[in-house]
Amino acid sequence: MKFPVCEFAEAEEGFYSQCASCPIDSSSSGCALDQLEDGIYQFEGTTPNNGVKALFYFRDNEGNQVKKREAIHVEIHELDEQGHLITILYGIVDPEGIIYLKNSDSEKKYSQNNIQ
Q1: Is omega for the bond preceding 4 within 30 degrees of 0, making it cis?
Q2: What region, left, alpha or beta, does residue 56 occupy, with left being phi > 0 and alpha being psi -120 to 50 degrees?
Q3: Which residues on neighbouring strands pair with residue 63, listed in sequence order?
Q4: For 42-84, what is each residue's pLDDT tens digit?
Q5: Which domain holds residue 47?
Q6: What is the DSSP letter of 106?
Q7: Closest to 65 measured CA to CA, from 96, 38, 87, 47
Q8: Alpha helix ranges (H) inside the chain
Q9: Rounded to an integer, what distance in angstroms lies between the CA atom of residue 50 and that of residue 3?
């Protein structure tokens, strides 16, 4: 899947990469994200894990929720039609985009295999 689905950048592989570090204000017409409150942004549309919505939680090094432009870290929650959590992605925001550190889905699969 390619991202962004906005009017400001060419779509590239790596769904969330450009969006997490994009300098465009989310209130601009054509931005793929809607700012819900400081540090929380929403994307509505098909997500890489077949969700319908993704919530971006932007944080500084101390874990405080901050505006996207001030963020060092991002946590992305993908949700299904009922609002249930599908997966969580963790990353670092930098000028080149987001670097995925961990996907909650792989942890879940690993722990389920250990139980069986």
Answers
A1: yes
A2: beta
A3: none
A4: 988 888 888 999 999 989 999 999 988 888 888 989 999 999 9
A5: 2-115
A6: H
A7: 38
A8: 17-21, 104-115
A9: 14
Our measurement of the distance from residue 77's CA atom to the centroid of its chain's CA atoms, rounded to an integer in Å, reads 7
Res. 34 pLDDT band, cuts 50 70 90: confident
- CA 75 to CA 85: how far, in whole Å? 13
Strand partners, 92: 73, 99
48: helix, strand or coil: coil
29 is written with which tokens? 């017409």
Residue type, 63: G
- d(CA 40, CA 19) in angstroms, rounded, equals 13
How many structural domains are present in the chain? 1
Cα separation, 113 vs 98, in Å, equals 29
Amino acid at 78: E
